[in-house]
Amino acid sequence: MSAKDKFHDVVKIALQKEGWHITDDPLSISVGGVDMLIDLGAERLLAAERQGEKIAVEIKSFLNTSAITDFHLAVGQFINYRTALKFKDPQRQLFLAIPLTAYNDFFKREFTIAVVEDYQFKLLVYDVEEEVIALWKK
Asked: Is the pTM of this model over 0.90?
C-alpha cells in the first residue's frame, strides 16, 4: 500500500464536515490486470433522491520544491484513475484535491489553467488550517 499524502486526514475531515460519508480509504480499483488505489471514496445522500452522489478523491499536497513535477504526477494519476472509474464505477466523479495555497499560486497560471480545462479536471480545493473545502470546481 502506498503512503498517505501529508494532508490526507485534512481532506477526509473537510469532506465529513460537508456531510460526505467516507466509504473507502483508499478506494481500490482493478482494471485489465492493473491495480490502483485512489485516496478516498465518498458518498452523500441527496435529500430528494434515494441514491447518493458518489465521488473519488485523489489528494495532493504540492509541497515539493518543483510544483510542475507535482503537477505532472497529479495529471498522470488523474487521467489513469478517471479511465479506470469509467470501467468500474462510471457514476463516481473523480476530484483532484489540492491545497488552497497551490490553487492560489500554481493553479491560476495560464499553463495550469489550460491543462485543467483541456483534461476537464474537477478540483476540490482544501484549506489546510481550517480543515474545510474552500472551493469545488466542477
From this structure: yes
Average pLDDT over residues 64-92: 96
In the block, which residue shows the cell 484549506?
127
Judging by DSSP bridges, how do beta strands 40-45 and 21-24 pair with one another?
A: antiparallel
DSSP secondary structure of 99-132: EHHHHHHGGGSHHHHHHHHHTT--EEEEETTTTE
The SS3 of residue 20 is coil
Instruction: Extract the C-alpha cell encoding 135.
Output: 472551493
CA angle 63, 125, 110 (to 5 degrees): 75
The reported pLDDT for the residue numbered 51 is: 62
Which residues have a Cβ under 8 Å from the Cβ of 53 and sit 6 or more positions away? 43, 44, 46, 93
Q: For the segment 53-62, what is each residue's pLDDT rounded down to a tens digit?
A: 999 999 999 9
